[in-house]
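## retry 2 of 3
previous attempt timed out at serialization; input unchanged, resubmitting
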Amino acid sequence: MKIFDSCIYPNDYSETELKKLSKELKSSRIQKAILQLDSRKLIDHNKILSLLKKNKNLIASYGYNSNLTLNQNIKLIQKYNYRIVKIHPRYMNIKLNNNFNYYDKIFKKLPNNIVLQWCSLVSWQENDLPTSSQLKFLNLLINKNKDKKIIIMHGGGPDLLKFYENFRFYENIYLDISYTLCHYFESSLFHDIRFLCNKFDKRITVGSDFPCFSFVDFKKKLRKVSSNINENKKFNIFYQNLEKLTEDK
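## retry succeeded, writing output
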């Protein structure tokens, strides 16, 4: 079964490291992966895109850089034709509390053909923003930006079903289970993920969150959690949903 990994990070962005990562994907029989460009690190965009042209199983996700203005970010996205943009509040160091307008402006100004990845893990917020508050925040943000395709990365972690119930009627919203699948595998979330694979197969994406989890461990857990899922649903979840989102963008 083909696999499209939604979230991988290299140790660094050197040519040697990216070639190694591309080969490791091939040897692990993972057909494609989204390479996360960490906004906290110095990124040579010309070099990255040149390398990705040679390693076609990698697609870059531009990490929104809070040290730049909104217009500067958009110019980079358009100049290098990035198809995916990652909004990672922790990496950006912009808490959600009292910053709704900041995020709303980003969503509004980004072109509609961009796929947005939103990191839903907010434990770094020092408990000042519980899950219910993030859901309210995202509801407001998404309802004001209904023309955007949004992947909620990690699916809200331990609150996966709350996120599903909240967004299941939003056709533009996808739930990603990278990190969550491997990290919570021995918990009751195993059954929650299996439930979603059966009921929500057209709007689930999967990923390893490599190097946090190895490709071997990721694939092993993916096989177990999907053992009772039919092949068409597996194809959607493992590969086709991300393929549709990212093709011809």
